[in-house]
Specification:
The complex is a heterodimer of chains A (about 160) and B (about 775). Chain A is an alpha+beta fold. Chain A is built from six helices and five strands, in the order ββαββαβαααα. Classes of the chains: A alpha+beta (about 160), B alpha+beta (about 775).
């Protein structure tokens, strides 16, 4: 079986796999990075959202061969110990979840969104995140959390600091 | 053969939607047996002379808490008689439980499957010896742990139950740990459904905490030689005014204190709540935003293998031939066939996937199976006399109809819809020395324990079910087929096995909210008052089937039918279907009579709580609104499971139909425990209701779903969400009712009524202009 070097959350992992294996399976079953969730396997629910090269990607429909060597960020990369990423903090404060199963995907989708839309309107959020499903229906809260996170991220970047 | 293996066909019988009304006859007020005991036997090693045993039989007679049985969703055919005798516990029983917890203080209660809560499939069959379980433990350091069989499925009950415990003990919320849904550790519980956790479990844990408070105060009073009445608890301490204090840990250290919960154990009045009624955030919220929470699919056990189940293409396929030679040739793969069950285990997920693909299996699809286009006809044709309900009748509908000024008849069709919990069914099973442990998402841990015990012919005390906080359920996870499958594979493999259903399996082999047909015949007199109301529901279920409106002559009936798809519980059960039909019809009649739709309802409503939510919703949306061109406003109200809701909708015409612009939801469920959590639940229920109102419907033929994927089965997404205003009415003077379900029931009829301003609306959900 071919080997691939995956750059995940700043470390390089050598994994064996078939080129068509999904990134999601590798993350969850080979590397035990279970924060990224399986929801549908068709790329239509967003529970498996990660960042590849800084852009949101559905890890369930992303082939292993396509991401070798590219930087991949999962939900596990965001918090620094107990210090949460501003997006995580915003979701927590807005209580933008119920069961929390979609939350890692929503958080990663938000991190990706804020890179292109630092000041997103509710319409921007709905448009960009429409493929992320929250079956518990906390969408209005997620919109608030995203906007709260955007404010925080803008404030930190204006202050010249990293997050 | 209706399903891939026998266990499933059995489950199917049990997961019919049921209904309060149908079971009212034979259901004893199954109330908190757990809390009936005498409080006295605070009984332990160095105990005082009064080891009064807990005599339950004696107390049972006169301490039946008044409970509205209609609030329960009891699963049909599942009730049976309680045991004939229940004997007192002895001191050593309490000590054994406490000993296992390492001393301190416990508050116990019987865990009696028969008497405890609603039902539980065959709960008292199998090994159900008397059992003593702790509700609450305060360890020697003063840390509080509360135990409950309720499951956390996103309704945030872990937080609100902890609020009740912390509040009664006057300790900070973070000092309470909730142990939930582990059948080896928590008292028996029939399940998390029917919106019962807040009205029943919260008071129960509050009583346990209040009993602990009394014990701690008595202990301090002894030490200080003080009058217990002058002492109170505060910040994790018993205090004697400003004079002196003792931390809970000082009182429990080196002690073995045990007590039982009194039926009449006083708890704080809602007016004295300090934590309840506030809005603390989800207690373990950080675990979710970081991805650290371990849902069942995330669990890894040493030596664990990965399992897959082979299934027909659709429901009710029959297994014909199996060629597993290629799969068996793969290293580490074991194929398991047991009757109609066919599955395999593999050392890892990749091999499991390849092995599954390598299996050559032939199934025979069902013949002449109804489809989504023939379902309504089928349901009426296959009515099963004796399995539905007797009609509820008052007055004489025929006579009233005979003298009516006008009559209004209509039929409503309700499609099957799917729960689509984002976490699909998943289970991790492990056999150790003949004892089975299964981690799985379910709303009925003890029910699943029974299913496992029966499937594997082992006593229930050899089975442990642990339910991690679960990626939602909405009524869709009452049964334990995934647990049975994982356990069967683990038994064959001799190693722990994880099984995660695919989304496609979840759609096709989980159960649906029932499809149904509802016919209404109404009659009004010359003054515009309803004088007759006939309501027949085929297959949807009988929840909220009765009309809240005052009509002197009524005949209301639920008829059971043959369901071609597996069906079961759902958020609000049939209350959504019944409210849809009833409220749409009330709206039709008001329109036909030229009477304002709110006024028409108020003319027939005596219930002050219903009137309050309806008038509040009308006021919020500015009722009556002059209809702007291309826009429509509609309203609906209802009650179920002890709470009240009114929903107002505003819609706007679009080239291909309409969109929902705004929803107003006024909700009242008695005293509010966690305002933000409640707001979240109400808003979530409304969003889920938008799905059923606007797009969800299972499209099927011959047992196969034509839209069983996340792409084709449309659930509400960001773009579908209108402006939603939630108004919560707090009634501190009323007991808290559950809130997870009822806010869903009026979304569709409010939208349907609003859409009527734009044109005729079809009789079938989802709401469409015809």
């Amino acid at each position: 079986m071919p080997k691939y070097a995956l750059r995940i959350n700043g470390s390089t992992h050598e994994v064996e796999g078939e080129p068509g294996d999904s990134l999601l399976s590798v993350l969850r079953y080979e590397l035990n990075l279970t924060g990224t969730k399986y929801g549908c396997g068709e790329g239509h629910c967003g529970a498996c959202t990660v960042l590849v090269d800084g852009q949101t990607a559905r890890s369930c429909t992303t082939r292993l061969a396509a991401v070798a060597g590219k930087p991949i960020a999962t939900i596990e990369s965001l918090a620094n110990g107990d210090r949460l990423h501003p997006v995580q903090q915003a979701f927590l404060e807005a209580e933008a979840f119920q069961c929390g199963y979609c939350t890692p995907g929503m958080v990663m989708a938000t991190v990706g969104l804020l890179k292109t839309h630092p000041n997103p309107t509710a319409d921007d959020i709905a448009k960009v995140m429409d493929r992320n499903v929250c079956r518990c229906g906390t969408y209005p809260r997620i919109v608030r959390a995203v906007q709260l996170a955007a404010e925080r991220v803008r404030a930190t970047s204006q202050a010249g600091g990293r997050r | 053969m209706r399903s891939p293996h026998p266990a499933l066909s059995e489950i199917r019988e049990d997961s019919r939607p049921v209904d309060d009304a149908e079971i009212r006859e034979d259901s004893r007020p199954v109330d908190d047996a757990e809390i009936r005991e005498d409080p006295r036997p605070v009984d332990d090693a160095e105990i005082r002379e009064d080891p009064r045993p807990v005599d339950d039989a004696e107390i049972r007679e006169n301490s039946r808490p008044v409970i509205d049985e209609s609030a329960f969703e009891v699963e049909r055919y599942e009730l049976s008689a309680p045991p004939s005798y229940r004997f007192a516990f002895e001191r050593r029983d309490f000590l054994r439980v406490l000993g296992a917890m390492g001393g301190g203080l416990i508050v116990c209660a019987y865990a009696t499957p028969a008497g405890a809560q609603e039902s539980g499939r065959g709960a008292q069959r199998g090994a159900a010896p008397r059992e003593l379980s702790a509700w609450l433990h305060i360890d020697e350091a003063g840390r509080v742990t509360a135990y409950t069989g309720k499951t956390e499925i996103g309704q945030n009950i872990r937080t609100s139950l902890a609020q009740a415990v912390a509040d009664e003990l006057r300790v900070p919320l973070e000092s309470v740990t909730m142990v939930m849904a582990d059948t080896d550790l928590v008292p028996f519980d029939a399940g998390t459904f029917g919106s019962q956790s807040t009205p029943r479990m919260a008071p129960q844990l509050a009583r346990a905490a209040a009993a602990a408070r009394v014990m701690l105060i008595e202990r301090a009073a002894q030490q200080w030689q003080a009058d217990p009445k002058t002492l109170s608890v505060q910040g994790g301490k018993v205090v004697d005014g400003a004079k002196r204090s003792l931390a809970f840990g000082d009182l429990t250290k080196g002690q073995k204190l045990a007590g039982a919960v009194a039926a009449e154990q006083p708890v704080m009045a809602a007016a004295d709540w300090s934590l309840r009624g506030t809005a603390p955030r989800k207690v373990n919220g950080q675990a979710f935003v970081t991805g650290r929470n371990l849902f069942t699919p995330d669990i890894v056990r040493p030596g664990m293998l990965i399992g897959r189940v082979l299934r027909p293409e659709g429901y009710e396929g029959t297994l014909l031939t199996v060629d597993d030679s290629r799969a068996r040739a793969m290293t580490g793969v074991t194929v398991v066939r047991d009757g109609e069950f066919l599955g395999l285990v593999a050392p890892n997920e990749r091999v499991a996937r390849s092995a599954t693909a390598a299996m050559r299996v032939e199934w025979r699809p069902p013949a002449d199976h109804p489809s989504s286009s023939t379902i309504y006809e089928h349901l009426k044709k296959t009515e099963q006399p004796g399995r539905g309900n007797a009609p509820t009748a008052t007055g004489d509908v025929a006579a009233a109809r005979g003298r009516a000024a006008r009559t209004f008849d209509a039929t409503f069709n309700i499609p099957y819809i799917a729960h689509v919990p984002l976490e699909p069914r998943a289970a991790v099973a492990e056999w150790t020395d003949g004892k089975l442990t299964v981690w799985c998402g379910t709303q009925r841990p003890f029910g699943v324990r029974t299913e496992l015990a029966e499937a594997f012919h082992v006593p229930e005390d050899r089975v442990r079910v642990i339910v991690p906080d679960t990626g939602s359920a909405y009524g869709g996870k009452h049964s334990g087929e995934h647990a049975i499958e994982a356990a069967r594979l683990a038994k064959a493999a001799g190693k722990p096995v994880k099984l995660v259903w695919t989304r496609s399996e979840e759609f096709s082999f989980g159960y649906m909210r029932p499809a149904g047909v509802i016919e209404i015949k109404a009659a009004v007199d010359g003054a515009g008052k309803l004088i007759a109301w006939e309501f027949d529901n085929w297959n949807s279920g009988a929840s909220a089937i009765r009309t809240p409106y005052q009509v002197p002559n009524q005949r209301i009936q639920f008829h059971a039918s043959d369901s071609p798809l597996r069906q079961g519980s759902y958020r609000g059960l049939a209350a959504t279907a019944n409210h849809y039909a009833r409220e749409m019809h009330m709206d039709s009649i008001a329109r036909a009579l030229g009477v304002d739709a709110v006024e028409f309802r108020l003319n027939h409503l005596e219930d002050a709580r219903m009137r309050a939510v309806l008038t509040a919703a009308a006021k919020e949306i500015g009722w009556p609104r002059a209809a702007a061109p291309g826009r429509g406003v509609g309203i609906a109200c209802g009650t179920e499971k002890g709470s009240y809701v009114a929903t107002a909708a505003e819609v706007a015409k679009t080239p291909d139909g309409f969109t929902v612009e705004r929803l107003i939801v006024v909700f009242e469920c008695g005293a509010i425990v966690n305002r933000d959590g409640l707001h979240n639940q109400v808003e979530g229920a409304v969003v889920q209701g938008i799905g059923g109102a606007l797009f969800e419907a299972i499209d099927f033929a011959n047992g196969r779903l034509n839209n069983g994927t996340m792409e084709l089965y449309r659930v509400p997404r960001f773009k579908d969400i209108p402006k939603i205003d939630v108004v919560l009415l707090d009634r501190k003077d009323l007991p808290s009712a559950g809130a997870g379900e009822t806010p869903i029931v009026c979304v569709a009829p409010a939208i349907g009524a609003a859409a009527r301003a734009l044109g005729a609306v079809r009789s079938e959900l989802p709401v469409r202009l015809s």
